[in-house]
Amino acid sequence: MATQDVSPTLKLLEKSEKISQGAEAKIYRAQLHPTPFTSESNSDGENVLLKYRFHKQYRHPTLDASLTKSRVAGEARAIIKCLRSGVNVPGIRMVDAAEGVLGIEWIEGKSVRFLLGGGAEDEGDIVEDADAAKDEDEVTEVKEEDLLKEYGVSADVVMEMIGTELAKMHQADIVHGDLTTSNMMLRHPASPKGLQLVLIDFGLAYISTLIEDKAVDIYVLERAFSSTHPASEGLFAGVLKAYEKKMGKDWAAILRRLEDVRLRGRKRSMVG
């Protein structure tokens, strides 16, 4: 393909730093050039994370283009809906659905999985923070006192933050679809926005008012805790306590459905 035929978005990818690659997307760190509307304090441009849903050779080109465009647009819509509802998620910086690229705010911080001693990400996982990715390759355990020292919070406070953000997301009728501690970032307190729990990676998110879908979302996170963080029952109880407080009267129905989902999950485990 001639150089002049390459879109500006793909040219940006070529100049960007590739961080990781999953089954569905490649992740890059890029810098958006300042514009006439950019403040002088940000004259060097802004670091952004680019999520590139690359073309799948095994799919028919027309179908592949349609699916890619739909999924990029869907993820952007979910993030925007969260932003409008006050959920802590990365800001949208650019959307090129035709090329399969979503650009979001770069989060200065580390994943909750890393901070709670979950170790390195699974092979092939998408890691949305370069520094965290490098650290997680080298460190397999982080003690809670280290978390306290660097971020000024305890694990209990982080659990409360998770439960609150999860409730805000569900109140906006957004179901994440892939809740794990890898898909949660703790923004560093020294960053301009201060300490925040930020939900990331909305590639499987969708809009739903169904109690069942929200209960399954919670169950997925509960299973992620049990598999990634040993002896995490007490930690997850803190998530549910904060979620209950934020959800108010809606919690009772979700809890009943969550218990049903747990029962179905146990039965599947027994049957294999």
Automatic annotation (TrEMBL):
Cellular location(s): Chromosome, Telomere; Nucleus
Catalytic activity from the UniProt record: L-seryl-[protein] + ATP = O-phospho-L-seryl-[protein] + ADP + H(+); L-threonyl-[protein] + ATP = O-phospho-L-threonyl-[protein] + ADP + H(+)
UniProt keyword annotation of Disulfide bond present: no
Enzyme Commission numbers on file: 2.7.11.1
InterPro entries per UniProt: Kinase-like_dom_sf, Prot_kinase_dom, Tyr_kinase_AS
The keyword Phosphoprotein is assigned to this record: yes
One GO MF term: protein serine/threonine kinase activity
GO cellular-component term (any): cytosol
Primary localisation category: nucleus
Gene3D superfamilies given in the database record: Phosphorylase Kinase, domain 1, Transferase(Phosphotransferase) domain 1
GO annotation terms (biological process): tRNA processing; tRNA threonylcarbamoyladenosine metabolic process
Record note on quaternary structure: Component of the EKC/KEOPS complex composed of at least BUD32, CGI121, GON7, KAE1 and PCC1; the whole complex dimerizes.
Family of this protein: Belongs to the protein kinase superfamily. BUD32 family.
Function: Component of the EKC/KEOPS complex that is required for the formation of a threonylcarbamoyl group on adenosine at position 37 (t(6)A37) in tRNAs that read codons beginning with adenine. The complex is probably involved in the transfer of the threonylcarbamoyl moiety of threonylcarbamoyl-AMP (TC-AMP) to the N6 group of A37. BUD32 has ATPase activity in the context of the EKC/KEOPS complex and likely plays a supporting role to the catalytic subunit KAE1. The EKC/KEOPS complex also promotes both telomere uncapping and telomere elongation.
PANTHER family, alphabetized: EKC_KEOPS COMPLEX SUBUNIT TP53RK, NON-SPECIFIC SERINE/THREONINE PROTEIN KINASE
Protein name per UniProt: EKC/KEOPS complex subunit BUD32
Native organism: Dichomitus squalens
